Amino acid sequence: MKSITVSATDSDPGPVIEFVEEELSLHECPPKVLNQIEVAIEEILVNIVSYAQLTAEDGVEVRCEVLTDPVRVVVQFLDQGVPFDPLAREDPDLSVDTLMEREGGLGIFMVKKMMDDVSYAYEGGKNTLTILKHLD
Question: What is the DSSP letter of 90?
């Protein structure tokens, strides 16, 4: 799996999106799917910057691999922040009344809805959030 390391205090998704797009460049990725992957990357990076309690010296490692048969992309986000499983949170109630009162959780909810699989693990002192999206 190829990887890139970005600042743990900068939620700019640009470098990570470029990295993933480069990995996808040899495969036909429909624009809608690419957009969903880009949104997921942005939401996950914002989550890490907001909750991992990391410093500017810390990095977030992002790994990417395109698998075949069927064609799908796997992106992993690894950080050494405090253990935090964003998938453990209950999905939000999207009714108008509670939506205005809600603090957080919508970004990961969107990621879960747009990706084909999302998983979390905490091993070896690292949070690892993995997303998978089929390209067809």
Answer: P
**In the chain, what are the domains?**
2-134 (3.30.565.10)
**Which pLDDT tens digit goes with each residue over 53-86?**
998 889 999 999 999 999 999 999 999 999 999 9
> Residue 124 in contact with residue 62, Cβ under 8 Å?
no
Q: Which residues of 67-97 are buried (b: 16+ CB within 10 A; e: fewer)?
A: eeeeebbbbbbbbebeebebeeeeeeeeeee
Q: Is 73 helix (H, G, I), strand (E, B) or coil?
A: strand
CA 52 to chain centre: 14
State CA 42 to chain mean position distance: 7
User: Is the whole-model pTM more than 0.85?
Assistant: yes
User: If DSSP codes are grouped into helix, strand and coil, which group holds residue 2?
Assistant: strand
Q: Give the sign of the dihedral formed by CA 98, CA 101, CA 107, CA 112.
A: negative
